[in-house]
Design goal:
This protein has a two-stranded antiparallel ribbon. Helix 1 packs antiparallel against helix 4, helix 4 runs antiparallel to helix 8 and helix 11 crosses helix 16. It is globular. The N and C termini lie far apart (about 55 Å). The chain is mainly alpha-helical. About 65% of the residues lie in helices and about 0% in strands.
Length: about 450
C-alpha cells in the first residue's frame, strides 16, 4: 500500500493544522482582550490547578534548571524530571521575556504538529485521499455522547461550575478527560497534543516497519517512542504494549514464533524502554517524585463512563473488528495495530496501577479509524453510487460524533467571558506572587 502523502495532501494537512490552531485560539483571544483592568487572565481554558504545574516547571527552566523538581511538596529533593516540552517552553519564555507567550506558542505548535501527525496516522490505513480526509476529520473531532448528558444538565438549569473529583467520575469521559481526545487536547493542553502526536507517529512507523520488514522504520519508531518518554512517560506503555500485542496475536494465529517479527519488537523495546526504566526509578527513589505519585493517582471511572465517552465510535470500531475477525492476527498489516489497541485498552484501563486513566491517551484515534472504515465499507457495500447521498450520510455521522468537541469549544468562550470565574485572578495577587518569586532569599512554600 502507498503510505506516502502527495504534495497537495501535505498542503491540505498543513492547512487543517493552521485552521485548527486559529479556531482553538479564539477563546484565548477573548480572555486576553476582554479581561477587565483589575483582572489577570491566566491563559487557560481548563483546570488552572493542573496548568499552573506546567508553569512551575517552565519557571524552573527559565531560572536555569534542567532537571525539574516537584514544588507541591515541602520534602527536600533533587531535581530529576526531564520534560522536553517544558524545557523548550521555559527556554523560549526566558528568551521572549514572557512565559505566557511561550506557552501560547507551544500550544499553537502542538496543534499544527498533532494535525499533521493525525493525517500521517490515518494514511497508514488507506491509500485513498478521500478516505483519509474522512478518517482525519473523525479522529480530530470525534468523541462520545457526553453532549447528551450536557443537554440534560442545561435543561435542568445547571450551567456549570466547580465540581469534585467524585462528581467527575460519574460523567461521560469525553466531558472531562482531554487526553482521550484530539480536539479537546488541542484546545486545552499542549503537552497532551504533543504526546498524542508522538504516540500516533510511533504507531505509524512501527506498523510500516513491521509490515514491510524495514528495521529502519522500526528504529524511527523507537526514537519517537524515546522522545515520547520525556514528554508524557505513561504513553510509552501503550506503544510498547501494542507492539507486543501485534506480535503475540500473529504468533498465536500462525502457531509459531517468527524471529523476524520479534526482531522488530526487540528493537523497539531496546530503543524506547530505557527512559521508562529511568522514570520508574525516579518515581520510587526520589522523595519529591514519591510525593508527586501520591498526588497524581488517576484511577479509571466505571466502564459506563468510557462507553458513553466514546459512544458511536466504540460501537463502530467493535462492529468493524467483529466483521473482520478472520483477519485478527492473520497478517502483519498496519490495521493489526488498531485491533491490538482495541483489545489491550480495556485491560490497561483497569490494570492494578495508579495511573489507569492516563493510558486512555489518544484512544479516540484507533476507535475513530475503525468506526469510519466500517461506515465507508458499509456505504460501498450498499452501493451508494450517488455521491451526494454518501457524503450526506458521512457528514451526519461526523456531526453526531463531533458534538462533544463543539460543546468544549463553545464552553471555553463562556469560561473566558466569566471574569469572576476560575480563569481570572486579581492583579494584586499576581503582583504579590511575582514579588515573592523575585526575592533571591525566598524559601518555604506559598499556597495561593
Amino acid at each position: 500500500m502507498n503510505y506516502q502523502l502527495q504534495r497537495e495532501e501535505r498542503l491540505e494537512a498543513l492547512g487543517w493544522g493552521l485552521l485548527l490552531a486559529l479556531v482553538t485560539s479564539l477563546p484565548y483571544l477573548l480572555g486576553y482582550m476582554a479581561s477587565p483592568a483589575e483582572k489577570y487572565f491566566l491563559g487557560f481554558v481548563l483546570n488552572p490547578g493542573d496548568q499552573n504545574t506546567y508553569f512551575m516547571w517552565m519557571s524552573q527552566v527559565a531560572s536555569g534548571e534542567t532537571l525539574l523538581r516537584n514544588l507541591y511538596t515541602s520534602t527536600p529533593h533533587e531535581g530529576v524530571i526531564l520534560n522536553l516540552v517544558f524545557l523548550a517552553a521555559g527556554w523560549a519564555g526566558k528568551l521572549l521575556g514572557s512565559l505566557d507567550i511561550a506557552y501560547q506558542l507551544l500550544r499553537l505548535a502542538a496543534v499544527v504538529l498533532l494535525a499533521w501527525s493525525v493525517w500521517l496516522f490515518v494514511a497508514t490505513f488507506t491509500a485513498s485521499r478521500e478516505r483519509r480526509r474522512w478518517l482525519f476529520l473523525t479522529v480530530v473531532f470525534g468523541a462520545g455522547i457526553g453532549w447528551v448528558w450536557n443537554l440534560l444538565r442545561l435543561w435542568n438549569g445547571d450551567y456549570g461550575g466547580l465540581v469534585t473529583d467524585t462528581e467527575l467520575l460519574a460523567r461521560p469521559l469525553d466531558l472531562w478527560v482531554p487526553e482521550g481526545y484530539v480536539f479537546y487536547s488541542m484546545l486545552v493542553m499542549p503537552h497532551f497534543s504533543l504526546a498524542i502526536a508522538l504516540l500516533l507517529l510511533t504507531v505509524r512507523y512501527a506498523a510500516i516497519g513491521l509490515a514491510d520488514n524495514r528495521l529502519g522504520m522500526t528504529a524511527i519508531a523507537g526514537l519517537l517512542c524515546f522522545a515520547l518518554s520525556f514528554v508524557h512517560p505513561y504513553d510509552v506503555l501503550i506503544a510498547l504494549g501494542l507492539a507486543g500485542g501485534v506480535a503475540t496475536l500473529y504468533s498465536l494465529r500462525q502457531r509459531s514464533i517468527n524471529p523476524g517479527v520479534w526482531r522488530h519488537i526487540g528493537l523497539l523495546l531496546l530503543i524506547g524502554s530505557g527512559p521508562v526504566l529511568y522514570n520508574y526509578w525516579i518515581l520510587n527513589n526520589n522523595p519529591g517524585m514519591q510525593a508527586w505519585l501520591v498526588q497524581n493517582r488517576s484511577v479509571s471511572p466505571p466502564p459506563v463512563s468510557y462507553l458513553a465517552g466514546y459512544g458511536l465510535l466504540l460501537f463502530g470500531a467493535v462492529l468493524y473488528a467483529i466483521r473482520n475477525r478472520h483477519e485478527l492476527g492473520n497478517n502483519l498489516e498496519p490495521v493489526q495495530w488498531l485491533y491490538a489497541w482495541l483489545l489491550i485498552l480495556p485491560l490497561a484501563l483497569y490494570a492494578p496501577i495508579d495511573f489507569q486513566r492516563r493510558l486512555v491517551i489518544g484512544a479516540v484515534a484507533p476507535l475513530a479509524v475503525l468506526a469510519m472504515l466500517q461506515l465507508l465499507d458499509w456505504l460501498g457495500e450498499r452501493r451508494f453510487t450517488a455521491r451526494r447521498a454518501s457524503t450526506t450520510t458521512l457528514s451526519v455521522v461526523l456531526l453526531l460524533v463531533s458534538l462533544s468537541s463543539t460543546f468544549h469549544w463553545l464552553n471555553s468562550f463562556r469560561k473566558t467571558a466569566d471574569h469572576a470565574g476560575e480563569l481570572f485572578v486579581e492583579n494584586g495577587m499576581v503582583e504579590a506572587l511575582q514579588a515573592i518569586a523575585s526575592d533571591p532569599g525566598r524559601h518555604g512554600t506559598v499556597l495561593a
